[in-house]
Amino acid sequence: MTEQNELERLRAELDALDGTLLDTVRRRIGLGVRIARYKSRHDVPMMQPGRVGLVKDRAARYATEHGLDETFLVNLYDAIITEMCRVEDQVMRRESPTAGERR
User: Fold this and answer.
1) Which has the higher per-residue pLDDT, 103 or 74?
2) Of 19, 50, 79, 94, which sees the most CB atoms within 10 A?
């Protein structure tokens, strides 16, 4: 196998992993929609600081245990959590009993 073929094979492997990563993020956001609907039905506040801390701590531990940069994974989860909060807030506003009154 030539060096170029090897690079192409490695890039194809990377592209497949990226597809898995993106699908996982999409599924996580979809689950966030379901969580937001639950919170809306049961009057649970959107922001759960304890849960946010737990998720970030878990990411930091994972990084340490697997030889990854802790700051990178915590920053990645900051971005994911920010998007999840945005989506949850949007869903909860839409599903709120008073949402129709605001339109």
Assistant:
1) 74
2) 94
Which residue type occupies 55? V
pLDDT tens string 26-64: 999 999 999 999 999 999 999 999 999 999 999 999 999
Distance CA 101, CA 48 (A): 26
In angstroms and rounded to an integer, the radius of gyration of the C-alpha atoms of the chain is: 19
Give the whole-angstrom CA distance, residue 59 versus residue 57: 5
CATH 3.30.70.2190 fits 3-102, yes or no: no
Whole-number average pLDDT of the chain: 92
CA–CA–CA angle 19, 78, 32 (5° rounding): 65
